[in-house]
Amino acid sequence: MKSELVRCQNCSKEFYKAYKEIKRYPNHYCSHSCVILCDEIITPDNSRFYPIETYKVGRNEMHLDKQLVRNYLNNCGWNKIDSAPQLPAHIIDEVSLAYQHVYYLLLGKTV
Questions:
Q1: Selection from 47, 24, 45, 22 nearest residue 35 by Cα
Q2: pTM (2 decimals)?
Q3: Alpha carbons 111 and 89: distance in angstroms, whole number
Q4: Segment 26-54 mean pLDDT
Q5: Count of alpha carbons within 13 angstroms of residue 63, beta-carbon side
Q6: Could you tell me if 47 and 35 lie in one domain?
Q7: Are residues 48 and 70 in the same domain?
């Protein structure tokens, strides 16, 4: 299990690095049939990130993605009809730290 995890982590890092390279050339188009990535992948906005050290299947996990915002909005009394309430500073800080942590885990660098 540990070797599969390491292999997955390494693959994810390589994929993320390759994706960053693709994004540097937004006006580059293939001259033949190919797949062009037009959005984002492996980011906290479209992927689920959990700390592997504490992850357990079937348990409500600590999130390192925008689920932190969803959880706040689902529990703050917002009726989802009116405009969303402004996020409190502690939620913004928590999400910012989570995103920075994911960046570090994927690239080994700090923001």
A1: 22
A2: 0.58
A3: 20
A4: 64
A5: 19
A6: no
A7: yes
User: Which residue do the tokens 């960046």 mark?
Assistant: 103
Please provide the average confidence, as pLDDT, over all residues in the chain: 76
**Whole-angstrom Cα distance, residue 97 to residue 91?**
10
Q: What is the DSSP letter of 8?
A: H
Where is average pLDDT lowest: 19-33, 49-63, 94-108? Answer: 19-33
Both 77 and 111 in one domain: the answer is yes
8-state DSSP, 17: H
pLDDT of residue 93: 95
Those residues whose C-beta lies under 8 Å from the C-beta of residue 22, and which sit 6 or more positions away, are 37
Number of domains in the chain: 2
Residues 58 and 97 in one domain: yes
